[in-house]
Design a protein that fits this description.
Helices cover 16% and strands 52% of the residues. With 73 residues, it is of the alpha+beta class. The protein has one domain: Flavin-binding protein dodecin (Dodecin subunit-like, 2-Layer Sandwich).
């Protein structure tokens, strides 16, 4: 098996409905431009509050993806 290199980047997804939907939105959006997403780790959950009510759920994720090798290697 060849050695591999992975990048870990942080994303924040938002949803007016739930933390789960916020996480899914972040992953789905990232997958449109990043290939080979591997792992998503939830690192923080928070809420945006306005006038005493929850306005948005925010999920912060660390997402990893594999770097592709150029050429025949």
């Amino acid at each position: 098996m060849a050695d591999s290199v992975y990048r870990v980047t942080e994303l924040v997804g938002t949803s007016s409905e739930s933390w789960e939907k916020a996480a899914a939105a972040a992953v789905e959006t990232a997958s449109q431009t990043l290939r080979d997403l591997r792992i998503a780790e939830v690192v923080e959950l928070d809420l945006q509050i306005e006038d005493g009510r929850v306005r948005a759920y925010r999920t912060r994720l660390k997402v990893s993806f594999k770097y592709e090798r150029g050429g025949d290697s």
